[in-house]
UniProtKB/TrEMBL annotation:
Superkingdom assignment: Bacteria
Family assignment from sequence similarity: Belongs to the GART family.
Domain named Formyl transferase N-terminal: residues: 3-188
Enzyme class: transferase
Catalyzed chemical reaction(s): N(1)-(5-phospho-beta-D-ribosyl)glycinamide + (6R)-10-formyltetrahydrofolate = N(2)-formyl-N(1)-(5-phospho-beta-D-ribosyl)glycinamide + (6S)-5,6,7,8-tetrahydrofolate + H(+)
Pfam families linked to this entry: Formyl_trans_N (PF00551)
Taxonomic path: Bacteria, Bacillati, Actinomycetota, Actinomycetes, Micrococcales
Binding site for (6R)-10-formyltetrahydrofolate: R64, M96, R97, I98, L99, N113
Protein name: Phosphoribosylglycinamide formyltransferase
TM stretches of this protein: none
Organism from which the protein derives: Leucobacter insecticola
GO MF assignments: phosphoribosylglycinamide formyltransferase activity
């Protein structure tokens, strides 16, 4: 059974999708904790499911690296990355922070993210807006390994969506999210079953 830690900053729609999947005994992964950098609304989903949660606020630390060390310590308290013999995965599911380099080195390649574009196109925080500004006729979502760059890690899975004429950022982002949730759930399933070997990407 793959142990999951899910990191969020907002409403937690991807977290909800993973919680729903993990509620099925046949799903080969279990969420053991949910972490955030703020009082995220999505923490309520963890509470409703009886999943432990924690908040590690960057503002409580002198720098990003100190915050990253505290975040890593919180994950280890829940058994994530503590035992090298035990399979675990950290899922950044809407965490709106660039993770510090030392944190990334500690957990990668068992550290994944979803991004609302077809990487390497449109990295960064405004991917949907950037795709529209560039006149893209197609975009999508990427699940990738987090490395020390910004959205530069190895691509695991992608799904494509056509950009509709005259579509605005909010509507396009919502259609991308509709692809993102099942793609993340299935990607985690394949990682848990060994169909995807993150160390070999």
């Amino acid at each position: 059974m793959l142990k999951l830690a899910v990191l969020i900053s907002g409403g937690g729609s991807n977290l909800q999708a993973l919680l729903a999947a993990a509620a099925d005994p046949a799903y080969p992964a279990q969420i053991v904790c949910v972490g955030s950098d703020t009082d995220a609304a999505g923490i309520a989903h963890a509470h409703a499911a009886g999943i432990p949660s924690f908040i590690v606020r960057p503002g409580d630390f002198t720098n990003r690296e100190a915050w990253g060390l505290a975040l890593a310590a919180a994950l280890r308290e829940h058994g994530i990355g503590e035992d090298p013999e035990e399979q675990s995965l950290v899922v950044s599911a809407g965490l709106m922070r660039i993770l510090p380099a030392e944190f990334v080195r500690t957990f990668t390649p068992n550290l994944i993210n979803t991004h609302p574009a077809l990487l390497p196109l449109f990295p960064g925080a405004h991917a949907v807006r950037d795709a529209l500004a560039a006149g893209a006729t197609e975009t999508g979502v990427t699940v990738h390994v987090i490395d020390e760059g910004v959205d530069t890690g190895p691509v695991i899975r992608q799904a494509r969506v056509r950009v509709l004429p005259g579509e605005n950022e909010a509507d396009l982002h919502e259609r991308i999210k509709e692809l993102e949730r099942p793609l993340l759930v299935e990607t985690v399933r394949e990682i848990a079953l060994g169909k995807i070997q993150l160390s070999q990407l």
